[in-house]
Every structure is written in C-alpha cells, then in structure tokens.
Design brief:
The complex is a heterodimer of chains A (116) and B (113).
Chain A (H helix, E strand, L loop, with lengths): L8 E5 L4 E6 L7 E8 L6 E6 L2 E4 L4 E4 L5 E6 L8 E9 L17 E6 L1
Parallel strand pairs in A: 1-9
Antiparallel strand pairs in A: 2-7, 3-4, 3-8, 5-6, 6-7, 8-9
Chain B lengths: L4 E3 L2 E4 L5 E6 L6 E8 L3 E9 L2 E4 L8 E7 L2 E6 L8 E8 L7 E2 L3 E5 L1
Parallel strand pairs in B: 2-11
Antiparallel strand pairs in B: 1-3, 3-8, 4-5, 4-9, 5-6, 7-8, 9-10, 9-11
Classes of the chains: A mainly beta (116), B mainly beta (113).
Chain lengths: 116, 113
C-alpha cells in the first residue's frame, strides 16, 4: 500500500494560491493520485485525479513530477468556502479486483483554513 | 440527480444493541464502499463490493461487523453487538468502477452509549 504523507494543517488568506503537497515515495507503476475535499458533516468530494505531469480542471490543478514520488494540489485564489480537509489518495486502478493492488485508503488529510 | 443516500443520519443506541446502517448507491454504479471516520483513526475503508460481490473486507474491524449487498441498489452495514468504541461516522460511497471517482453519502453518525 502506497503510504501518503501530507501536512496536518495549512493556513491561508482569501485570494491567495494554496499548494498542498503529498509525499508518496512507494507509489507503484499502476497507481493514480487522487485528491478529495471534505467539509464538516459531509462526505468527501472528488477534486482531481492524475497519473503524471499536470492536470487541470475548473477547481484545481495537480502537479506530478517525473518520479511521481510526490504531488501538489494547487487551489487558485482560495476563498473562505475552501476551508476544508484535503485528502491525497494513491490507488492502483488496474488490479483492485484481484486483491493484489492498493485499496483506496484515505490518510489523515490536510486541514486548510482560509481567513479574510 | 439523487446522490448516495444513507440512513439513518443519526443513531444513538446502547451498548449491546444491534445497529443496521443502510445505503442506496447511485443508480448505475457498480462499486460500493463502506468507510468509517473517527477523530483518532481518520477515514478507514471497511469493505467494498463490485457488482454486489464483496471484494475485500479486510478493513472490517471484527466479527461484530458484517455487510451485505443483496442487489445493486441497496447495501447494509450491521454491527452486532455494538460497543462504545464503534461510535463514529459511517460513510457509504459508490462509483462506476472500483477505480472510479467515489461519490459519498452524507454519512450516518453512530453513538453507542
């Protein structure tokens, strides 16, 4: 199981760009990197997923270096409503059915607090 | 579109009682996951199903926990007998496949006294 390490918490101000880095030194060839966001009293919500290089959607960007041992979630111009816990997941999309791959297990996440 | 529906949203019970949590996945999704979230342990995967078949239940804490998926639109997580340490928020999630984006329900908050 590719273990992930994230900062426990981060603070930011409205309008700033926030970058949350996740380390996954033991990532396997078939593993994808996925980020979820969780607000209090709600279930996690998918943000973005990638395998290598850069992925961008309407919410965030995901940067993955060539060695794939880490990844960075970038949130442009955060607002108060972005205050949440952000989880980095590393999972094998190809072999879960056989039981030989990684399960989609959440780590402890990063608590992002955005202030005025 | 209806998302993942869980019930009950809140349950308070006494130690030793049986607890049944229910989940209705998004129509058309083939995979269903049960997670448990606590402050101490974070979000833990308990079990997941693919096409109604349990694939991996290694996350189920002990024999007091059981999960079933009798059809594509319904799953239950049962705890019998319940203990105070089972107090947590239990989430159900579904996806188009085991490798797809997870869609979570709003969770069932269980308190065992």
């Amino acid at each position: 199981l590719a273990k992930t390490t994230q900062p426990i918490s981060m603070d930011s101000y409205e309008g700033q760009e926030v970058n949350i880095t996740c380390s996954h030194n033991n990532i396997a060839t078939n593993d994808y990197i996925t980020w979820y966001q969780q607000f209090p009293s709600q279930g996690p919500r998918f943000i973005i997923q990638g395998y290598k290089t850069k992925v961008t959607n309407e919410v965030a960007s995901l940067f993955i270096p060539a060695d794939r041992k880490s990844s960075t979630l970038s949130l442009p111009r955060v607002s108060l409503s972005d205050t949440a816990v952000y989880y980095c997941l590393v999972g094998d999309r190809g072999h879960i059915l056989t039981g030989g791959g990684n399960k989609l297990t959440f780590g402890t996440g990063t608590q992002l607090k955005v202030e005025l | 579109d209806a998302g993942v529906i869980q019930s009950p949203r809140h349950e308070v019970t006494e130690m030793g009682q049986e607890v049944t949590l229910r989940c209705k996945p998004i129509s058309g999704h083939n995979s269903l996951f049960w997670y448990r979230q606590t402050m101490m342990r974070g979000l833990e995967l308990l079990i997941y199903f693919n096409n109604n078949v349990p694939i991996d239940d290694s996350g189920m804490p002990e024999d007091r926990f059981s999960a079933k998926m009798p059809n594509a639109s319904f799953s239950t997580l049962k705890i019998q007998p319940s203990e105070p340490r089972d107090s947590a928020v239990y989430f159900c999630a579904s996806s188009l496949s085991v490798a797809g984006e997870l869609f979570f329900g709003e969770g069932s908050r269980l308190t065992v006294l």
